[in-house]
Design the sequence.
């Protein structure tokens, strides 16, 4: 199956309604992934700067965007460093910034990346395999309390203390399946029962570790802090989040920005996928889109 058919961009129509892209404008897609949202931006005649932490996704995006055609440039960069990227490109500000947070389908589908509790692979989980500590390095070195706190806060996992205790007793861990089995044991699930569960008992722990490995909340906080200065007057930021902690940060930053005058207007409520989209694309079920627009230039 081709990338075009396999990857369905979430809330595509709603993201375009928020960004209102016009021919000749410049939009940064902070999380180009497989190029789904970016392809639509190119269709609207926009110049797209696409960033991603994952070099393999950048290559997949390049293939897709070359087929689409248009003015685009891709960079292997963390969106936390957006001002540096704009500086390197000689841009003082852009008309739109999009971030579609989290992982992409190849991260989960490729067992060698170590994101999936369903596929045996090295316990890695780095979106950028060229730098940073792997999930194995973190679980094998962190203190028990620190681990429990991360699993509780990032995974909303109530059994976090039992899981952290068992990790510390049994480490070193090297493979996804070792961690998965250990979480099942800490949560009193047999592997058979776990495999049939609606929400796999290891899902929340894997999510927490992924967010920790990739510094997802600190990166988002940094992006939110620099966003207003990266937008031209009248420019819009749109952020799609899939985790309550992320959505809280976005909501708060946009609200504070509206109060302080950094933004003229923000989305009053999070925009959710329609029932039809949720049916078609299960990933859209937990998506929340928020946008913020800067004041237009005076005079
Ligand atoms: C949900 S996918 C984006 C999908 C994309 N919107 C599409 O339609 O194909 C999220 C992407 O963001 C990337 N990513 C996550 N955190 C990032 C960060 N801090 N800086 C740059 N890219 C990041 C991931 O590697 C992944 O490819």
Sequence:
């Amino acid at each position: 199956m081709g990338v075009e058919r396999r990857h369905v961009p979430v809330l595509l129509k709603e993201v375009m309604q928020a960004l209102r892209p016009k021919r000749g404008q410049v939009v940064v897609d902070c999380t180009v992934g497989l190029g789904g949202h970016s392809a639509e931006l190119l269709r609207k005649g926009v110049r797209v700067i696409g960033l991603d932490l994952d070099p393999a996704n950048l290559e997949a995006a390049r293939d897709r965007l070359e087929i689409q055609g248009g003015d685009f440039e891709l960079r292997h960069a963390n969106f936390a460093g957006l001002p540096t990227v704009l500086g390197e490109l000689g841009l003082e500000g852009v008309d739109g910034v999009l971030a579609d947070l989290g992982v992409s389908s190849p991260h989960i589908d490729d067992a060698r990346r170590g994101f999936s509790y369903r596929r045996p692979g090295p316990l890695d989980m780095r979106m950028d395999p060229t730098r940073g500590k792997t999930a194995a390095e973190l679980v094998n070195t962190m203190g028990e309390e620190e681990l429990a706190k991360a699993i509780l806060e990032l995974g909303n996992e109530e059994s976090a203390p039992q899981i952290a205790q068992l990790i510390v007793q049994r480490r070193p861990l090297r493979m996804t399946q070792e961690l998965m089995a250990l979480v099942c044991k800490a949560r009193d699930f047999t592997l058979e029962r776990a495999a049939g569960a609606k929400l796999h008992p290891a899902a929340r722990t894997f999510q927490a570790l992924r967010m920790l490995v990739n510094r997802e909340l600190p990166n988002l906080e940094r992006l939110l802090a620099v966003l207003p200065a990266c937008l031209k007057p009248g420019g819009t930021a749109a952020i799609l989040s899939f985790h309550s902690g992320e959505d809280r940060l976005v909501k708060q930053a946009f609200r504070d920005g509206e109060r302080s005058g950094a933004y003229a207007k923000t989305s009053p409520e999070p925009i959710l996928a329609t029932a039809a989209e949720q049916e078609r694309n299960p990933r859209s079920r937990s998506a929340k889109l928020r946008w913020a627009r800067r004041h237009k230039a005076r005079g």
Observations:
- The beta strands are 26-29, 47-52, 72-76, 94-100, 231-241, 265-266, 288-293.
- Residues 3-105+216-293 form a domain with the Rossmann fold fold (CATH 3.40.50.150).
- The radius of gyration is 20 Å.
- Residues 53 and 78 are 6 Å apart (CA to CA).
